[in-house]
Amino acid sequence: MTKFEMLFDNGGGILLLTDSYCHSYDRPTWAADDAAKLLDGESTENWDGNQPNYRRERHAEDDLISHSTARNIYDGNMHEYGSRTSWSDPLTWERGAAWNEFCRELARIGAEKGGA
User: Fold this and answer.
1) How many CA atoms lie less than 13 Å away from 69 in the CB half-sphere?
2) Sheet of strand 14-17, all strands in order from the earlier edge strand to the far edge
3) What is the pTM of this model?
């Protein structure tokens, strides 16, 4: 399984980072789709669109979704997220719109595949 991180900048951009692959997204649903593929066991080895020039360290203002957090969202395991009762309720999140849309889409994909 390919481990990854998703960085969400304060302008709505999303960056997928693995050890050997980097891709920038401006659509949270596309980022969620690729994260779901990685969580399902795909590798980025044969993926197009590697953008190594976008690779960077996390900035203080970035929001981060780690591989393990993405797995929990995908699997519908929300108990560790405190008062959140549903990933479909954006009012419970204190993140930006891209982060919220990514989480909703990843949870939806996971539920469709039997994760939740």
Assistant:
1) 14
2) 22-25, 14-17, 5-8, 63-66
3) 0.85
